[in-house]
Amino acid sequence: MIDEKLKIQTKKNDDIHCVYLNGYLDAHTAPKLEETFQRIINEGGYKILVNFSELDYISSAGLGVFMAYIEDVRNNGGDIKLTSMKDKVFSVFDLLGFPMLFDIDADEQDGISKLANNQFR
Amino acid sequence: MKAENSHNTICTAGDVVELSRIRDFVKSKAEVFGFGDGDCNKIVLAVDEACSNLIEHAYRKDASKLLCVEIDSLDKDFIIKILDNASPFDPLNVLQPDMEEYFKKLKRGGLGIKIMLMVMDEIHYYPSTEQNPVNTLILKKHLN
């Protein structure tokens, strides 16, 4: 059932792990994204880009996944960059001030460039 | 509380798998009431947050428990009532996080009630009583 609600694809470009989200990120599906982040980190990946272009919904349970991993990632010299959000998804991040903590770019390439050039928060 | 679904009520198991069905129900009602996409999204988000909190914290993911979402209206007020049988817990008594401090300390969780307060016009909570053994959370949004 989770697979129908949230599809996740990953791609690795050099040391940058790209995560593509499709569907709905809520209290039901958030554990699936946690598993993906945990797998990337277990493999030693700390430069993570998340592309939201096909994500239609996020709740605070979804926001919590990014909060859960950002410290670990940054403490290991990496970052999580967020890109390509629909307005309705960005508005949830923006409502609570998440742009204070995360770079959120309109274009995936901007996020990749920042990771490649080690432009971290 | 009986599982009586109707035109304006949806009752589901207290299970996060049901969240998408609850969101679809609330969105369809908010659209018919006349809200645009932005307000519909806010209303759906608030109901999701309320039901997620209920399922995870009050029901502790016990899917044998039941929750109901009723839609009502009064003039231009769109009213959502969320009914449950858990131990009473008033979300309005919870101290809300300061987001600068939240980000500085890299906290996690505890944002659901804050979101509800930010996107809805009114929130009321009525704990169960001997006469009415159902807790009721009321969320209101005014149609401008």
Please explain how this structure is put together:
The complex is a heterodimer of chains A (121) and B (144). With 121 residues, chain A is α/β, with parallel strands linked by helices. Chain A has one domain (2-116): Transcription Regulator spoIIAA, CATH 3.30.750.24. Helix content of chain A is 42%, strand content 31%. Chain A has a 5-stranded mixed beta sheet with strand order 1-2-3-4-5, sandwiched between helices. In chain A, strand 2 (16-25), helix 2 and strand 3 form a beta-alpha-beta unit. In chain A, helix 2 packs parallel to helix 3 (60-75). The radius of gyration of chain A is 13 Å and the shape is globular. The mean pLDDT of chain A is 96. Chain B has 144 residues and is of the alpha+beta class. Chain B has 4 helices and 5 strands. In chain B, strands 1-2-3-5-4 form a 5-stranded antiparallel beta sheet, with helices on one face. The termini of chain B are far apart. The relative contact order of chain B is 0.20. The mean pLDDT of chain B is 95. Classes of the chains: A alpha/beta (121), B alpha+beta (144).
Summary, kept brief:
Chain A is α/β, with parallel strands linked by helices.
Which descriptors would you attach to this protein?
heterodimer, A: 121 residues, alpha/beta, Transcription Regulator spoIIAA, 5-stranded mixed sheet, 5 helices, 31% strand, B: 144 residues, alpha+beta, 5-stranded antiparallel sheet, 4 helices
